[in-house]
Write a structure and sequence with these properties.
Helices cover about 15% and strands about 25% of the residues. By secondary structure, it is an alpha+beta fold. Strand 1 and strand 2 form a beta hairpin. The longest helix is centred in the middle third of the chain and has 8 residues.
Length: about 90
């Protein structure tokens, strides 16, 4: 499930929650319910807005990272022979 950031102008708080893409969250009470946190002094029917956030990208930095992600990395060696550097020994 995707992670979304919501901002409540009533209390100037930003909360990160996870829910399905087809669910619409419009109030502070719904955000607190999804985040498992207390509503506090803010009214539960206070409006919230969803913020734009950058997607999380994972960039492999080692041969083991490629292997763990399910990829195969081939490196060209002498005379055009390719070696699988992500193969398990």
């Amino acid at each position: 499930m995707p992670i979304y950031d919501y901002f409540c102008p009533s209390n100037n708080r930003k909360v990160e929650v996870m829910h399905s893409i087809d669910r619409e969250v419009k109030t502070w009470g719904e955000v607190c319910e999804l985040a498992n946190c207390e509503v506090g002094e803010t009214a539960s029917d206070a409006p919230v807005r969803r913020l734009l956030s950058a997607p999380m990208l994972s960039i492999p930095t080692s041969n083991a990272d490629y292997r763990n992600a399910g990829f195969t990395k081939l490196v060209k060696r002498d005379k055009g022979v390719y070696e699988n550097v992500t193969a398990r020994d």
